[in-house]
Amino acid sequence: MAYGAQDCLLVIDVQYDFMPGGALAVPHGDEVVPVINRLAQAFEHVVLTQDWHPAGHASFATSHVGAAPYQTIMLPYGEQVLWPDHCVQETRGAALHADLRIPHARMVIRKGHHASVDSYSAFLEADRTTRTGLAGYLREHGVRRVVCVGLATDYCVAWSALDARAAGFDAVVVEDACRAIDLNGSLALAWQDLAEAGVRRTTSDELLSGAGTQNPWLPES
Ligand code: VGL
Ligand code: ZN
Fold this sequence. Notes:
Layout: E1 7-12, H1 32-40, E2 46-51, E3 72-75, E4 78-81, E5 107-111, H2 134-140, E6 145-151, H3 153-166, E7 170-179, H4 186-196, E8 200-202, H5 204-208
Parallel strand pairs: 1-2, 1-6, 2-5, 6-7, 7-8
Antiparallel strand pairs: 3-4
């Protein structure tokens, strides 16, 4: 394994509702699965997240009279994009993609489970106060760097990477192991925010490329 105890691959929301044909389809979302499977083999430590909403969740347009999906409204904790109903607890759409091959992953963080608060981030809910416990878990395991992949680049992946940084971890986003929703320029804005926060952007080839070369991602030997 190229990456040991100090590195964690964070696999975000690879669920059927984000796949083509799903309730909140991310274009080409299914293409991340083989890339993530290849990456996961190089990581001893993998954590998965699962968007996990109760029916009637505050982030669903159907929960607000007269609202439409992809519109933004104000909730008590701030602006919230409204989405089609998605990743409802225990539905098939909320299930992790069956083609993921990561048997050694032993931690799944379910997020967005509070009915009135969304959570794009794997670390901190949208009220920016309620913690998921992931930072503590990673620290207890000696993790220092979080490598983010999955769906969607401009929402759950970006927010997770930014919060990883804010929690004191090094953070990396693997561009070709993610796909975006890209709503009103959200993807360009996300890359800008990530760069400003010091989140590094890389590719799976670069992450996996050979020992012996000057690979900045491989631990020093
Ligand atoms: C996500 C919107 C709503 C994501 C989750 O996984 O990026 N986006 N819920
Ligand atoms: Zn969601």
